[in-house]
Design a protein that fits this description.
Elements: E1 2-8, E2 12-19, E3 25-32, E4 39-45, E5 48-54, H1 59-71, E6 84-91, E7 102-103, H2 106-114, H3 123-136, E8 142-146, H4 156-159, H5 165-171, H6 180-194, E9 202-208, E10 212-218, E11 221-225, H7 247-255, H8 260-269, H9 272-277, H10 283-288, H11 294-318, E12 323-327, H12 328-333, H13 335-342, H14 354-357, E13 364-365, E14 374-377, H15 382-400
Helix pairs in contact: 1-3, 11-13
Length: 401
Amino acid sequence: MKILVINCGSSSLKFQLFGYDNMELFSKGIVERIGEKQSFFKHQYKDVNKKVEVHAPNHKAAFQMIIDDLLSPECGLLSSIEDIKGVGHRVVHGGEKFTGTVLIDDAVIEKMKECIPLAPLHNPPNLMGIASARELLPSVPMVGVFDTAFHHTLPKIAYLYALPYEYYEKYGVRRYGFHGTSHKYVSLRIAEILNLPIEELKIVTCHLGNGASMAAIKDGISVDTTMGMTPLEGLPMGTRSGDFDPAIILFLMEKENLSIKEMDSILNKKSGVLGISRFSNDFRDLEDNVDNHEGAKLALDIYIYKIKKYIGAYAAAMGGITDIIFTGGIGENSPYIRNLVCKDMEFLGVNMDPALNDPPKSERTITFADSKVRVWIIPTNEELMIARETRNVIENMVKVG
C-alpha cells in the first residue's frame, strides 16, 4: 500500500509516493507549466530520471498523467488504484479553522474556501489539486495538511497585533505563521536523534530558503514564529521585505503615487535581498560575489543580523535555548551563513566547530561537544511529514469506523 503526497501550485503539481508502513520513498516528480502550450513531466523512480514534454491544459490532466505513469508497466509502482491508501495534500493557509490535519470532505472544502482571502495566491491552487484528486480517485481518502497548523499553539501575546481588536474579530487579522510542516519535522527529528522527550527541549528552528521563517519551539509546541498573517513578515527573504515600519507603505504610496497592486508587488517581488543588493535574489549569487559586490555583502549582512536578532529574542521568550536547527535550501547548504549567524554567540552558549560546519549537506551537529547550545543541520522533509500525518488520519479513521 502507498501514500501519495501532493503539493499543487498555480502552474505546477509536485508529487511523492511513499510506502504506507515503512514510509519508504518510491518516486517523486512534478508537472510544470500547467496551462501553457509546452508543459513538462518529470519523474524519478528506481534508476529512471524521466523528463518529457506533455500537454497539461489543467491540473486534472496533470494529475491523470501522474496516476497513469505510476500505473504503467514501465514504472510498476502501482498495480491498481486500490494500492493508494490515501492522498495527502499540502494546504498553505488554514486560518483558525484548521488547527491540525483533517480528513477532507465537502464540509472541509467549504471551510478551506473561506480561508482563501488569507492566502489568495496559494489556497486556490491547493483546492484545484484536491478537486482533481477527488474526481479521479473518488474512493481514496483525501487528507489536508496545513502549513499554518503547527503554529496554532501560539499564545495570544504572540499572535495578536496591536491593532483595534475588532479587526481580529471581523477579519482574523493575527499572526498565523507558515512552514509549520518543516518546523515540526525538524524539531521532532532532533528529539529522536537525542533520544530525549521533546518536552525537555527549547528549540529555535531556522527554515532558510528563498522564503524564510524561524520558530521558537518549547515543550514540543510552537510558541512564536517570524512570519505573520502572511509570509511577508519576519526575515528579509529573496524578494520579500520582511519586518519594517508599516508607515513606510503610506509614505511611499503617496510619494510614488503607487496603487495597492503596485505596492504589493514591491513588497513581495522587488524587496528582500534583491532590493537591497540590486543584484540578485539568489543567495548563491550573493555569496559568490560577497567580496567584490558591496550590495551583495550588505544584503547578506542584514539577513544574518536579523537571524541573530530573532535567536536572541526567542531565547528570551523561552527562557533559554537548548538547540538551534538550520534547515531549508540555504540553512542546509550555506556554511557561510551558518558560520556568521553563530559568530560571537558564545554568550548564549554556542561553541561552533568550524570543521563540522564545512562538509556538504548532511544531518549532523556543528558544535563542539561542550557547547551548551547544540547547533544542527537537519535537512527538512515536508513531504515525509505530510505522509506521516496522512497515515495517522487514515488509521484514526479506521479505528473510528
